[in-house]
Amino acid sequence: ETVLTQSPATLSLSPGERATLSCRASQSVSTYLAWYQQKPGQAPRLLIYDASNRATGIPARFSGSGSGTDFTLSISSLEPEDFAVYFCQQRGNWPPAFGQGTKVEIK
Amino acid sequence: EVQLVESGGGLVQPGGSLRLSCAASGFTFSSSAMSWVRQAPGKGLEWVSTLSAAGNAYYADSVKDRFTISRDNSENTFYLQLSGLRAEDTAVYYCAKAQGSSARYHFEYWGQGTLVTVSS
User: Fold this and answer.
1) Are B112 and B3 in contact (CB under 8 A)?
2) CA distances from B96 to A30, B47, B82 (A)
3) CA distance B2 to B24
4) What tens digit of pLDDT does each residue of B37-87 get?
5) How confident is the model at residue B101 (pLDDT cuts 50, 70, 90)?
6) Average pLDDT, whole number, for chain B?
7) How many whole angstroms separate alpha carbon B15 and alpha carbon B42?
8) DSSP secondary-structure letter at B27?
9) Could you say which of A28, A78, B28, B115 has the lowest number of CB atoms within 10 Å?
């Protein structure tokens, strides 16, 4: 099974700052990696699929990059509504798997 | 607008059974793979099961032989039958629509979740 490791566990930033989140896979997943945002009490929301494609309605400040085993989610300038938990998920190998999450909190 | 509405969660004793439902609308249900993903309290996300549009079912090892996934395309409804429940099955269960028809897609839309609590 492919294990996804996200870092850091918690990111403390101020609104307007840039956020950079990392997701590392235990084996190559090609570009078959997605990012989800989850706010307290809500379902996850797809942000980025296949490493770098923004999902419908996702603002341009969210971008994804990477391939193989190393992936990055960037938020260019944090808005108040971006403080949440972010999960990566791979579909390149069976079974599908999620990372443990990175919490982006207000500094 | 895509909508997924889960129901059927609740409190059940260890060893008991429960059936979760997910009512879908706003897309061609019969052409989409559908999945269940769960989240234990305060924990991360765990894939549970997927049913492709062609009817192929896949399960996580942790639930294999205890859970059964199914769909009714005439009712646009998706199900997860849970049996042999254990305390570690306690979680919010989300239904999710895949981006495509096979099992190997990301989860495009999610329902609001239904809580299953396994406790005596």
Assistant:
1) no
2) 23, 10, 17
3) 7
4) 999 999 999 999 999 999 999 999 999 999 999 999 999 999 999 999 999
5) confident
6) 96
7) 24
8) S
9) B28
- Residues 63-92 of chain A whose Cβ lies under 8 A from any Cβ of chain B: 87, 89, 91
Chain A residues within an 8 Å CB radius of B50? 96
* Host H or E run for residue B78: strand B77-82
Contact A30, A68 (CB under 8 A): yes
The alpha-carbon gap from B23 to the nearest alpha carbon of chain A, in Å, equals: 16
For residue A33, pLDDT over 90 is answered with yes
Residues 6+ apart with CB under 8 A from A8: A22, A102
CA distance B103 to A90: 12
Q: Which of A100, A105, A107, A84 lies closest to A10, judged by CA?
A: A105
DSSP lists the bridge partners of residue A103 as: A10, A85
User: Do residue A34 and residue B111 have CB atoms under 8 angstroms apart?
Assistant: no
